[in-house]
Write the structure tokens for this entry.
Amino acid sequence: MAIHWTKYSAPSAFYPMAGRSLPWLAAGTLLLTAVGVYMGLFSAPTDYKQGEAYRIMFIHVPAAWMSMWLYIVMAAYAGLGLVYNTRMAHMLAAATAPTGAIFAFLALWTGAFWGRPMWGAWWVWDARLTSELILFFLYLGVMALRAAIDDRQRADRASALLALVGVVNVPIIYFSVKWWNTLHQGATIDFSGSKMDRSMLWPMLILTVAFWLYSFVTIFLRARCEILERERHAEWVGELLDNRG
Amino acid sequence: MGGYGLYVWGSYGVVAVFLALELIFLARRKQALLERLTALREMEEDKS
């Protein structure tokens, strides 16, 4: 099946496509979250070393992964917007930032709640934690810069530039546990495979897909709002509003 | 949760609350936006 990706760079095509996808994405999110949380909290065995506290991993790792992945997605849209000057790319970059910021915050929060019982500290200025905190601030910076500039085009371009510059932080987060002596543990899963038992690996992977689908839901919802706001003078938006009754 | 209840539920609970709140805010933003744009459009149509 040929999918014409460039077709969806038109807001008038993206809006209905996102609308049709949303029920499916939402259903998938709910189903996988329910399965993943059940497996993570109840069916995965107790860890011999960390007891039940390790169960935080099942949401901590997916949240941290999503916070990094969404930053790359946001920066990619920002780059596309700068190079091709497409409105839809900028709208998607704007739609991605808040969800990315939430996942970065949740990675830090769940990390603190895991660090406290295991390390005896809510927070340490360790390379992994500090670079993730910088990621959170980068998201906030991109959002604040966009909000601070009234002119839409200038806001798009300025925040896109900041998003692109900040992308160097993502590999720093990923490799921080290798490059520096960190309190944070190293990668259990990398490109060569996993050192984790399957009963613990599955809930984590399922919740990663669930968080990813959730991100699609919120980004599509937010992108649809962005489209309506920016394209409100377009004929098709007028028709859509008239048909609301 | 073997004595770790505060930490485990404190993590899962806050994640659930934040993700749910984001969805609620987005649904409300869309609703308010549609109402505002519809009102604007009716005003513009009255003028012309």
About this structure: Residues 19-41+53-185+195-242 of chain A form one domain.
